[in-house]
Write a structure and sequence with these properties.
alpha/beta, Rossmann fold, five-stranded mixed β-sheet, four-stranded parallel β-sheet
């Protein structure tokens, strides 16, 4: 399974010519989310059954599923309330399907004909289902594109682990040429698209130059970084540096800070926490804040409920008077075009999984 060395996407033209008998597929990976309130508890069970989400010592691995059951039942009621507040379910499947359609059309514009599939880690359509459809469709070359800009063990790592396991169990799939894009936070098209959204939202404030830009990233337990070598923190900090440099090149030099959200459980997660930063900003007299959900490319519960409701209320209650939030990238045309470029650039690196694990 091939991994492109560094797809920076710096203003180059991407071209690829399919062989006459070649059938190209692109697999988008995401977490998935419960589509109804009845889906919430089984979705949480799937999430916490993942050993890359709750990392137990080897001697206690047998407790993974019982613990997942306990945690999912314990969190189900409050989580149902949160999903009820955004309409009764996650929009992630619909939004990811829309991104898949937009990517397929962007590839068509480059004269690259591809079937684009969606595979979710914790809910329908599962990665396993997407892979079986890829096999049925007779795909002859595949690009795997996780919709997580920065790599983490708990997101891209977990999803790719499932993908590799499925492929290794199947003689046909193990011979299929595959290219995996492990991260793409440094791509110029992505950086520019994020800067565009930030610039637009800053312009909605009465005094844009006084706005504090708060990058809020999904957190991970600090042990992932310190003990397991997860590059997520370093990649996140580099990503924000690149975005702020792009903004400075446009004459936008707002103060900014990074914080981490969505902590679950008693473990120490990456700090500072978004909740603590908002309270501190209010204490320091900051009056205007623009929240930027930096690790999310689609709207879901972490943006629509956690940021738009919880963090907004906390900010206003802490003395911050003006609040804004940058929307997720979604199907922003410059973003989708850059993903299409990334796919085309990855194609020459495709190789069979069986040759990657000798």
């Amino acid at each position: 399974m091939g991994t492109p060395p560094c797809l920076t996407g710096v203003e180059e033209k991407s071209h690829y010519t399919l062989a006459a008998d070649e059938k190209l597929g692109v697999l988008l990976l995401n977490t998935g989310g419960p589509e109804t309130l009845n889906d919430v508890q089984p979705f949480l069970y799937n999430l916490f059954s993942d050993p890359d989400v709750i990392r137990l010592p080897r001697l206690f691995k047998f407790l993974q599923r019982p613990l997942a059951k306990l945690v999912s039942v314990f969190l189900a009621l409050r989580t149902k309330e949160r999903y009820a507040a955004i309409g009764g379910g996650s929009p992630l499947r619909r939004l990811t399907d829309e991104q898949a359609d937009a990517l397929r059309m962007a590839l068509e514009d480059k004269n690259v004909h591809a079937d684009v599939y969606v595979g979710m880690r914790y809910w329908y359509p599962f990665i396993e289902q997407a892979v079986q459809q890829i096999k049925r469709d007779g795909i002859t070359k595949l690009v795997v594109l996780p919709l997580f800009p920065q790599f983490s063990i708990s997101t891209t790592g977990s999803s790719i682990g499932v993908f590799r396991y499925i492929f290794r169990q199947d003689a046909y799939l193990s011979r299929l040429p595959v290219s995996v894009i492990l991260s793409w936070y440094q791509r110029h098209g992505y950086i520019k698209s994020m800067a565009d959204l930030i610039e637009t939202e800053l312009g909605k404030f009465g005094k844009p130059e006084e706005v504090m830009v708060l990058f809020s990233a999904h957190g991970v337990p600090i042990s992932y970084v310190e003990d397991a070598g997860d590059p997520y923190k370093d990649q996140m900090e580099e990503c924000i540096y690149l975005i702020t440099q792009e903004l400075k090149a446009r004459g936008i030099g707002n103060d900014h800070t990074l914080a981490y959200q969505s902590r679950v459980g008693p473990l120490q997660w990456l700090k500072p926490y978004t909740t603590e930063v908002l309270v501190e900003l209010g204490r320091k007299g900051v009056k205007s804040v623009l929240a930027v959900p930096i690790s999310f490319v689609s709207e879901h519960i972490e943006t629509l409920e956690e940021i738009d409701m919880g963090y907004k209320d906390l900010a206003l209650g802490s003395g911050i008077e003006n609040w804004g939030r940058v929307p997720a990238l979604g199907c922003t045309s410059s973003f989708i075009r850059d993903l299409a470029d990334a796919v085309v650039e990855a194609l020459p690196f495709a190789k069979a999984l069986e040759s990657d694990c000798a």
